[in-house]
């Protein structure tokens, strides 16, 4: 099972920054390969800058559903409104931050 780093507040990967019922994903950062609930958790926890996954990395498993703990590819996540494995709804507002994670 993947480890989610940073200030999580529950077992579904919610964090101190994003903790609505729909905030149930963690992202594996391209810079370090570690999962964090959000970009702010990454910034507050590590001593290096984050960088987005290159567009050529859509096949990488880099998104973790905090409900069923399935790892989604970037392509699966970018096309989904909910988890393709357990149907947990994802926060549509996360799309506002996609450029922080994905080119």
UniProtKB/TrEMBL annotation:
- PROSITE patterns assigned to the protein according to its UniProt record, in alphabetical order: ZF_CHY
Q: Name one GO biological process term.
A: protein import into mitochondrial intermembrane space
Is Zinc found in the keyword set?
Answer: yes
**Keywords in alphabetical order:** Metal-binding, Zinc, Zinc-finger
For molecular function, the Gene Ontology terms on record are:
zinc ion binding
Q: What residues does the CHY-type domain cover?
A: 8-88
Q: Per its record, how is this protein called by name? A: CHY-type domain-containing protein
Origin organism of this chain?
A: Brachybacterium alimentarium
């Amino acid at each position: 099972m993947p480890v989610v780093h940073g200030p999580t507040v529950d077992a579904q990967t919610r964090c101190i920054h994003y903790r609505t019922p729909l905030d149930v994903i963690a992202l594996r950062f391209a810079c370090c390969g570690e999962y964090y609930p959000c970009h702010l958790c990454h910034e507050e926890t590590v001593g290096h800058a984050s960088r987005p996954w290159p567009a050529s990395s859509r096949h990488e498993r880099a998104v973790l559903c905090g409900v069923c703990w399935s790892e989604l590819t970037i392509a699966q996540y970018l096309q989904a409104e909910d988890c393709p494995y357990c149907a947990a709804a994802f926060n549509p507002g996360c799309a506002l931050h996609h450029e922080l994670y994905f080119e």
